[in-house]
Each structure stands twice: as structure tokens, then as C-alpha cells.
Write a structure and sequence with these properties.
The structure is a single chain. The chain is of the alpha+beta class and 379 residues long. The chain has 2 domains: 181 residues, Rossmann fold; 186 residues, Glutathione S-transferase Yfyf (Class Pi), Chain A, domain 2. It has 10 helices and 16 strands. It starts with a strand and ends with a strand. The C terminus is likely disordered. The RecF protein is involved in DNA metabolism; it is required for DNA replication and normal SOS inducibility. RecF binds preferentially to single-stranded, linear DNA. It also seems to bind ATP. Belongs to the RecF family. Keywords: ATP-binding, Cytoplasm, DNA damage, DNA repair, DNA replication, DNA-binding, Nucleotide-binding, SOS response.
């Protein structure tokens, strides 16, 4: 799939934009704080109905405005599909093929994107919440069923936590409702864990040869799904749910005392092993960056495998964070495979040599101009 056209109205520092892209490499070139990342954010928001930089949609609305609009046309295997997101001070509305979508979950997955930004290099050694958000965000694009299960789990988890807090202040406890919530939570937790285990295994399988190539076969990467349940307790659906229910019974008094759910996939994690050593704990910064790069490149292949279409790749000023070897592997991996949007203050020699016929946009103070091959520009 590839994004043919993007239109913005009052989005961040862009008052009005209407631009066409190439299915190959599109480069947003310009100094810092001119609006390059805002363009990637708009593409990301068009795909996922939210920003990757803020949880407050109001931040996306331009100065003194009340609404922001992002729209575009994505070319997919089955044809063109118009997409549109309106952000207002009261919420957001999604349209697909010019029809309002009552549920955002029905919209997500129509255009798939993979974002690689400098902060993703901290994914390996960062907090567990970063990795949980990563797998939920990426797997939800690949599978509508995963998105549904994850949303249901979060909703029941929120209810259960609220009730646990209520029980803290009650002298006489009615535990029947807690049992109902625990049963529901265990069901969705079981399905979510199973889906994560399958997809993490496929992601690890895709990342291994990529990582080996970058390290010239000197290092081997493995990715493990880390759960509070033992491997014996997560053999299949029945054993996972039984183990969860048994653990919740043991944890009940402690959970009531603390007012929160202490067990479940919302507390799970990923572990990255290089030559059987935890790279987050024992790896060098170079090894951590190589693992992060292999992970992102593996996503491309996994998303193609799951959806039968390649995603759109968003690279936000990431080339400057990678050495020549890693830049080369990234640029070679994306060539002739995925539509790519790349932001950078300047093009490296490696990028100039490897990127074939890019479409280059000069970005300055919220304006875009196409850079001609002879160095000229036009609006």
C-alpha cells in the first residue's frame, strides 16, 4: 500500500496543505522546528486516529483553531481508499470512503504504518510500558481481532481496578462482583496472551536473519515474551486461564489492599537476547541500536505476512542516529519494497547513493516546496 495524497487543514503549524507523493521514497528536508515531524505525525494520525507524540488531540489543532483535518487517499491491493480524520476540542471523527465510522476500531488497519524515530532506539532498554505499547500498537494494525481483544481487556481492567479501590473503603465486602470481573478479565487476558505469544514468535523469527546480516553473522538475536506465568502455565488456552484464576485468588487480599490488578498482560514485557545475554542489561549502545533496527525492519515483513500488504514506513530523523553500516541496512531494506517518508536536516552520502529517485520536499515554517533534480523548487 502507499499514500498517494495528503491534505491538511489547520494541523499543527500547517494552515492548508495538499501534496502528492511517490510510491517510493519521499524526503522532507529542512532545519529543525520547521514542521517536518508534524507531517509524519499527520500521516500516523491518518492511519491510527491518534498522534504518536501526544495523548491530547487538542495539541494537533493549529493556533486559535477549533478543528484540524487530515485526509488522504491510500492505494491498496484492492484499490484506492479515501480516509479522513477530524480532530476537534470535543473529540474526533473518522471517515472511510466518505462514510462516517461509528467505531474507530473499524477504521484502524485500513492504512498501516511503521514509525521509526530516535526514541525507538530506547525501546530495548526503556521502561516495560514502552514495549507493551509497542506490541499493542503494531499488532492492533495487523489484526482487527487483536485490537478488539486488547480494547476489551483494557475496559474490564479499568472496571476491576475501580472496584478494587471501592473495596478498600468498605467494612463489609461484596466479593461477588469482583469474581464476575475477574472471570471476564481472565478470559480476555488469556486470549490476549495467546495472540501475543504467536505474534512475538513470528516477529522474532523475522528479526533473527536481519540482525544476523547487520552483525555479519557474529551475533544472534532472540525475542522472548515475558509473563508472570511460567512456560508450563501458558501451554494452551485452558492452562493459561486456570493459572490466571488461581493466581487471582491468591492475590485477592493484596489487590484489594493496593487497589489495583497485579497480574495480567498489562504487566508483561519483551526481552531481547543477543547471544543469549539480555542486551538491555549487558549490551552496548551499539548492540541495543542494532536490536531496535532489526525489530523495526522485522515489523515490515511481519505486517506483510499478516495483512498481505506492505506497510508505509515513517523515518523521523533516524538516519543521523545510525552509523554507516546500520544506515545502509535500513536503506537497502526499504528500497523497492515499502513507501517511505523520511525527515532529515540534510542527506548523508550513504542516503544519496542508495535512495533511488526520491521525491524531495523542502520544509520551511509550515510550507512545502518540491525540490527539482536541478536544485530548483516549485510550490
Amino acid at each position: 500500500m502507499w499514500l498517494e495524497n495528503l491534505q491538511l487543514q489547520n494541523f499543527r503549524n500547517y494552515e492548508a496543505v495538499d501534496i502528492d507523493f511517490t510510491p517510493g521514497v519521499n524526503i522532507f528536508l529542512g532545519s529543525n522546528a520547521q514542521g517536518k515531524t508534524n507531517l509524519l505525525e499527520a500521516i500516523y494520525a491518518l492511519a491510527l486516529t491518534r498522534s504518536h507524540r501526544t495523548t491530547n488531540d487538542k495539541d494537533l489543532i493549529g493556533w486559535e483553531g477549533k478543528t484540524a483535518k487530515v485526509s488522504g487517499v491510500v492505494e491498496r491491493r484492492l484499490g484506492k481508499l479515501p480516509l479522513e480524520i477530524d480532530f476537534t476540542t470535543k473529540g474526533k471523527k473518522a471517515r472511510m470512503n466518505h462514510l462516517d465510522q461509528a467505531k474507530l476500531a473499524n477504521y484502524v488497519g485500513q492504512m498501516n504504518v511503521i514509525l521509526f524515530a530516535p526514541e525507538d532506539l530506547a525501546l530495548i532498554k526503556g521502561a516495560p510500558a514502552l514495549r507493551r505499547n509497542f506490541i499493542d500498537r503494531e499488532f492492533s494494525q495487523m489484526s482487527p481481532k487483536y485490537l478488539y481483544v486488547a480494547n476489551q481487556y483494557r475496559a474490564i481492567l479499568k472496571q476491576r481496578n475501580q472496584y478494587l479501590k471501592q473495596l478498600q473503603n468498605k467494612k463489609s465486602r461484596d466479593l461477588l462482583y469482583l469474581e464476575v470481573l475477574t472471570e471476564q478479565l481472565s478470559g480476555y487476558a488469556t486470549e490476549l496472551i495467546i495472540r501475543r505469544l504467536v505474534l512475538v514468535e513470528r516477529l522474532a523469527r523475522a528479526a533473527k536473519p536481519i540482525h544476523a546480516a547487520i552483525t555479519q553473522e557474529l551475533e544472534q538475536l532472540d525475542i522472548k515474551y515475558i509473563s508472570q506465568l511460567s512456560e508450563e502455565e501458558r501451554q494452551d488456552q485452558e492452562t493459561i486461564k486456570s493459572a490466571l484464576l488461581a493466581r487471582y485468588i491468591k492475590l485477592q487480599e493484596r489487590e484489594i489492599f493496593m487497589g489495583t490488578t497485579l497480574l495480567g498482560p498489562h504487566r508483561d514485557d519483551l526481552q531481547f537476547l543477543v547471544n543469549d545475554h539480555d542486551v538491555a542489561e549487558f549490551g552496548s549502545q551499539g548492540q541495543q541500536r542494532t536490536a531496535a533496527l532489526a525489530l523495526k525492519l522485522a515489523e515490515i515483513d511481519l505486517m506483510k505476512e499478516e495483512t498481505d500488504e506492505y506497510p508505509i514506513l515513517l523515518l523521523d530523523d533516524v538516519l543521523s542516529e545510525l552509523d554507516t553500516v546500520r544506515q545502509t541496512h535500513l536503506l537497502m531494506a526499504m528500497q523497492d519494497k515499502v513507501q517511505t517518508f523520511l525527515t532529515t536536516p540534510s542527506l548523508s552520502d550513504v542516503a544519496r547513493q542508495l535512495i533511488k529517485e526520491p521525491k524531495i520536499f523542502k520544509v520551511q515554517a509550515g510550507t512545502l516546496n518540491v525540490v527539482e533534480e536541478d536544485g530548483g523548487q516549485h510550490g
